[in-house]
Amino acid sequence: MLRFGAKLRLRIAAIVLALLFPYISSSWAAASEEEVCDVNADYALGREDYSAAIALHHKVLRTHKDNALAHYHLGFAYGMTGRTTDEISEYLLAARLGLDKWDLFLNLGLAYLGQNDWPKAIKALRTAVSRGPDHPEAHYSLAIAYEKANDLREALTEITASIQLAPEDPDERNTKAIIFAELGDLVSAHDEWDHLLQVAPDYAPARVNLAILNGSHTRLSAMTSRAIDRFTIAP
Fold first, then answer.
1. Where are the beta strands (DSSP E) in 95-184?
2. For 179-204, what is each residue's pLDDT tens digit?
3. Where exactly are the structural domains of the chain?
4. Is pTM, for the whole model, over 0.90?
5. Which residues lie across from 35 on neighbouring strands?
6. Which CATH number fits domain 112-235: 1.20.1250.20, 2.60.200.30, 3.40.50.2300, 1.25.40.10?
């Protein structure tokens, strides 16, 4: 079974404060371009105290029920505690209220991926790509959704776009090689893994996958039974 890499979940820690800073540094108020949320609620979210974040965002929404950003942040907190259905509901409500952030649609798409709903994941992630075309996470996640839906050509297009934006990320190149293998282009798959091991010799998934490719005399198995590590971008 070909192996995906773990998709850099640690990125969350580095991104949390950068994305939350505009909201943490301001008290709740209506901004000129979009709403901001409650400082205490977002501080809880930023320090990954999701139970407190949920309670505090509910408190905000009791008096400001149309605060789209608060619904988004509440959805994110739900998602980080495994409440995917509630997470999706809050994201959709935030979008209906006019929030149009690329990372909202990224997290919505990832939530749908977690529910194995490939069509809805693709729709949400295409929106994420259109709103944030310079973010490799959006292209990568859309590539995974297309792969799950067996639309391998579109998957290849998106993973290639992701690599152009994040050329040093080994998970991106490993995924591209897997897609090549599923397409039956074993030469390109071999070349991708071989190159990846030259620049990242300790990257285990590529070594395992190349060994499978070199030692296999049967059709390579699809990897749809392997769960993709879900990663999220903090709002």
1. none
2. 999 999 999 999 999 999 999 999 98
3. 112-235
4. no
5. 30
6. 1.25.40.10
